[in-house]
Design brief:
153 residues; mainly alpha
């Protein structure tokens, strides 16, 4: 039963070892059975936290255009260790992070799109854009640079 539950979880989406352990523990399965299933999945190559972390980062950074902070939070929530985080998520260069932030706002706010606004309208739009980037996990320095680009003529 434990193996079936674990395989069903992996069939739906990629999971970390901690996620599988939590799902099996929620079903009330004994720890020794959970450990046995985890070892079997790892031996067959179906459960690999390092590969999971790398795939997760590649997908979320490119497709969702998330910043480093958000990626770290999501991986920690999935039970990955600090060592795996450092391996899967090397610190990006400021230019890489800036490019990702530009891409994240490009559809809503193309470069220079805020240049025609003034006063309260400009402040409100800058707040919306900054909040959007902050939710995506970008640092304040990157947000300031992107906002500067959006308001320049």
């Amino acid at each position: 039963m434990a193996r079936t539950l674990a395989l069903r979880a992996l069939a739906r989406s990629a999971c970390s070892q901690a996620q599988i352990e939590r799902r099996l523990a929620q079903k009330g399965l004994p720890e020794d059975v959970i450990a046995q299933v985890i070892e079997e999945l790892k031996a067959r190559g179906w459960l690999d936290d390092a590969k999971f972390a790398q795939d997760w980062v590649a997908d979320r950074a490119d497709r969702k255009r998330y910043g480093r902070r958000r990626l770290v939070e999501e991986l920690k929530a999935r039970g990955l260790t600090e060592e795996l985080l450092e391996t899967a998520l090397p610190p990006p260069t400021p230019e890489e992070e800036l490019q990702r932030a530009r891409a994240a706002v490009a559809r809503r706010w193309p470069p220079g799109s805020l240049a025609h606004l003034e006063g309260e309208a400009l402040l409100a739009e800058k707040r919306r854009c900054a909040a959007f980037l902050e939710r995506r996990g970008f640092d304040n320095e990157t947000i300031k640079k992107v906002l500067g680009e959006l308001t320049s003529k």
